[in-house]
Amino acid sequence: MFSRPGVKGFVVAGFFGRMPMSMLGIGVVLLIEALTDSYAMAGAVAATVNVAFAVAGPLTGRLVDRFGQARVAVPMVLTHGAALTAMMLCGGLKAPAWTLFATGVVVGGSALSLGSLVRARWSYLLGGSSELHVAFSFESIVDEMIFVAGPALVTALATMVSPYAGLIVAMVSTVIGTIAFAMQRGTEPPVTENGGRSGSPITIPGVALLSCVFLAMGSVFGSFDLITVAFAEEHGSMVASGLLLSVIACGSLISGLWYGARKWKASLRSRFVRALGLFALGVSPFTLIDDLRVMVPFMFLAGLAISPTVITSYTLIEQLVPARLLTEGMAWLSTSIGFGVALGSWAAGRLTDMYGASNAYVFPLGCALLAVAVGVGGSAWLRTPVPQQQS
């Protein structure tokens, strides 16, 4: 895959450009909690950012499909950087609380789902080839590398340097990386003239089903971030929260390596359902754990099902959605996770303040079980219209 011209450039730029996807949410939580001493407020601001991202995601994907990646990505990332700077200034100057929410709307609305753009480039270069499964597996591994390093980095910066330091690093990384990605024009998918386009990918039943599943999964991810920060603080080690979240990502990274290297005979639909079941099983023990050391191995086990679920979902999208709508189709998964993360952050903040972190882990467990119920119940919609490639 990497012998193709231009691939290394967009992969490296895409890595740095989307590094903040694992840093922004927890960075906002740590900053707002430090300023207000309230996890409920921190969760509400983080939820605002994620709702704005979720609403804007499909619209951004449609703009990219219509005008091209570079023409959309550059102005959006510059707006995102300016809005994040404004949020930090509002916090530092003790501006009214509404300013945090107002700037949060712009921060989330201008955040780019760069992972969708990267996968769209792979699909353009490798569409119809068995290498595409390997490419999507590789991208999931890259995502997990980001989720291994990001939470630990932003937590260390926010707790050991300054509450603002993590968000500053995230902002610089996304602005420089996204602009560098946009400059890689040789691998950019061409814009397809489709004046007679018919609707949105969300009207495809399989895409709608996957979006609902990702909404529930996003609620797990959003609540886990905040609850784990609170859990670590309750046990006297705030910095351990980043390490715990990194352990989950380590599990997902390893399973992504294993999953991408295998030749699969089972259908995509079957693999998707099995991965969802393992995902719910992995989340189950956390309500019973009250020790940081015991939490570590269970965090690792919980992460093992994440990559296979995500890889299979993007592969299903690639086969269910017409090429001219692919970026928007993939963006619906990102936007669903965004809505879920927003809901999870808000609910987790309330539950943690009311009942404590250990009891609040009941919420992500319920969301994981809901994801399984929806995915299994509607799996018939995930039959792919063309024979899938084996790798």
Automatic annotation (TrEMBL):
Topology relative to the membrane: Multi-pass membrane protein
Any GO MF annotation of the entry: transmembrane transporter activity
Transmembrane region(s): 12-32, 38-60, 72-94, 100-120, 164-183, 204-232, 238-260, 272-289, 295-317, 329-349, 361-382
UniProt cross-references to Pfam families, sorted A to Z: MFS_1
Subcellular location: Cell membrane
Keyword tags: Membrane, Transmembrane, Transmembrane helix
Major facilitator superfamily (MFS) profile domain segment(s): 158-391
Protein name, per record: MFS transporter
